[in-house]
Amino acid sequence: MTEPGTRREWMGLLARAPAATLERLWISLGPDPEFAWLRPPETGGVMVRGRMGGTGAPFNLGEVTVTRCALRLQEGRAVGHAWVQGRDKAKARRAALADALMQTGRADDVRARLLDPLAEEMAAAETARAARAAATRVEFFTMVRGED
């Protein structure tokens, strides 16, 4: 079992990953392992809360649709969980399988073939988005008058 901080990172990465990218990279892992559902994928809503300025009193911002599931691998008995935004049950299943596989002897393979390339692609997409946004940046200069 890995330390919680690391698991938090890979579960966050899987939850934020675009479904098409996750599906494309998932194929490199080969056939899906045998598993049993503990909680089949189900879609529902969760309340999102916010704070003004990050420090103010919390308030209800609105609801977000999420899909969650839990499964247990047949061999190794590892349990995988997933919560993903939206209604994509296949993405939730893949994320839960990846979580379970990361708790087995296949963790290094899953990291090398799925998680690392996924993190790199998402970082590249974020860099490209930031570059497009920076191109539209307008800088204002204020001229100081001679009055003190």
From TrEMBL:
Q: Name one GO molecular function term.
A: lyase activity
InterPro entries hit by this protein:
Phosphonate_metab_PhnG
Record keywords: Lyase
- A Pfam short name: PhnG
Fetch the NCBIfam families from UniProt.
PhnG_redo
Name-wise, this protein is Phosphonate C-P lyase system protein PhnG
> From which organism does this entry originate?
Rhodovulum visakhapatnamense
Which gene produces this protein? phnG
